[in-house]
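Q: Predict the assembly, please.
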Amino acid sequence: MLLKRNSEKRDEGIFFSLRSRMIFWFGILFTLFIVVELTLVVYGIPFTDYKSFFHSHIERETFDSLNQIADIKKELSLAWIEERKSDIAIFSKNPVVRRNLEKLASAIGSAIENPENGSLWREITQEPVCIALAEHCDLLKNEKPIYEKIRIVELPTGRVIVSSGGEQAGEQAEFKQALSRAANFPGTHLTIVKDRSTGESVLVFSRRILRVISTVEGWKDAVVEMIVKADDFLRPIIHTGKGLGRTYEALLVDADGTILSSLKYPLPDGSLATPLEYRIGAEPARLAGQGREGSFISVDYRGKQVLAAYRHIPAAPHTSLGLVVKMDMAEVDATVVEGMRKTAIVGLVGLILFLIMAAMLAQRFARPIHALSRTAERIQAGDLGARVKESGGSEERLLIRQFNTMADALEKRRQELEAAYSELESFSYSISHDLRTPLRAIDGYTHIIMEDYPDVIQGEVKGYFKKVTLASARMGNLIDELLHLSVVSKKTLAHTKVDLSGIMREIATELKESEPERQVEFVIEDGLTVTGDKVLLADVLANLLGNAWKFTSKKRKAVIEFGTAVVKDEKVFYVRDNGAGFDSRYAHKLFQPFQRLHAESDFPGTGIGLATVARILQKHGGRVWAESALDKGTTFFFTVGGM
Amino acid sequence: MLLVEDNPADIELTLRALKKENIPNPVDVVTDGAEALDYLFGEGAYKERDLSNAPAVVLLDLKMPKVGGLEVLKCMRIDKRTRSQPVVVLTSSSLEQDLIASYELGANSYIIKPVDYKKFLEAVKELGIYWLFTNESPPNTNVADEQA
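A: Predicted assembly structure:
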């Protein structure tokens, strides 16, 4: 529908239709609005801190999530550690355990003194209290499978007394640091070390059971160790839980920044960092290790920009852990870009819909206007009956109604004019035609009288009769010229190429032949052609040249010119003679019928010729005017419409 | 010669002109189109006219009461008896449409009556000499047709 209308309407040069203009302007405004908005939303204001809305928003959301996750993980970690602490505290405070250990005191003391004597330790293991202790450990381990090993170790030599892990009594226990901490400081201690036999990291919870201030030589303390595989802690708490996208990572470090958990990504050099060996220097881990808490944008161990939330986990005296939860800035950016794209698409769809709406609106408004212009065209082309059907709103209808009324008036006026004109035509024609017949009679009978009664009609009477014939001859001329004028007005123009120069030369030749004794010089410019009616234009030239011929009759050497000139940037033709000229005060009368500026006796003429000339040129869309001064000659200028 | 003309002045001038130029041929005059048709086809007042004695030329005016010149011309050209009859339209009208219509209806010549008496004389003389003497009239076929 829209397209069909498009082909109907015609553009004229740079005149744009209402629809195109509306679409154009609405489109521009909307697009401008969208572009500005999008730019602000997407890119922020460049060179300022105002970040793009999207980016800020998504950053904020990400930080919220990261913080949430970090807090949760911290809580879970602490809760889990508390559980372990409570397990170990209960065990170590158990009076049965203590008493049993005390009963073993002297035996253990001897064993310590003779370390190479393996049998001493074997004896200890036979002791019922030792068995009871061992059972206790086993029981606990079965109850709480999280523990890989539960054992009691003596200090200072660090030998195992009992263990659930299949170690023999008397074996040397590793994890010296865990032991010495527990021995020297109260409370439960956490030590994270690598088990050399398995290669895995373990969490060693250690607590003193007994301080032996007794008579037994050597043995000072009994420490309980509860050992958990690091993985069993890291996996459920650090490495699982609600994630945040592709690049999300949670990691645990100690106070130094040494990683406790394995890293998701390789290091910049491509190698994989080993837990408990590699130390992260990046800021988030460092701050977390130092015991600080917060969230910020920083750079991680890969050197990539990340959003990070870091927490402090005070696991145990002497053991501070740092938790870092982070996500790559690049992922945030990607999300922003995605958002941008979606917004752009929405914007585009909106724009298209908007434009369609604008087009339809414009079409609505344009319809009455188009109807008006089409009808105006039809009227101009000649169909005076064309009218516009009413449509549109009240203003449009009013306009249409006024237009139709105007068209009605136009049609009526045209009809009136046509009627008047044709009436005038037939009137002027029949007058000039019907006048001839009686005129012939007058002239005829006058002559007959003169012929038949030559004796009677003599002298003065004869003179009078002659005057009668002259007068009737003159009237005959007038009638002819009037007739000619009316014929010329009626005639429809032919459109051919007319060689004015050629016609002029022919007329000049005829004039010279008619009065060969006269000395007249003709200066005729060659090659002057126009488009028009050949017969009528020949008439014009004959008239003008005839006039020039007539009014130079008293000059001994007459010069008559025909050519072109430029008058006020316009190309015009002219016929110039050096004859009698006329008083230019009466120039306005020149082209009116019957107006003469000379006496009949000086220069005979009817006074209609120039009226005819003017009418013919007017029909061609041109005009004629004259310049002259008495005795200085005359120049007639004329144009022939579209030359 | 048959002169079909309604204006008495024009009739008198024409006849006088012919006489002046010593054209002896008889001239019949009818003053309107209806009378012209009666004359040409031997009807009405001219029932007794011998149609074999056709005029050498018909001088036909256009503007006439009752039946106009063009109408007469049309009737003449339809009827076989008068189809070849030489007709000279002699009229005051210089209207182009009259000119065109006359020739289309089969007029042999068209002459505009001059206002000037001298020119009028000249025109009548020329046409008289031409059509009565110079021109060869078509042979009389009237009688032959009727009998056939």
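Chain A touches chain B at residues 429, 433-434, 436-441, 443-448, 469, 472-473, 475-476, 479, 483, 487 (CB under 8 Å). The radius of gyration of chain A is 63 Å.
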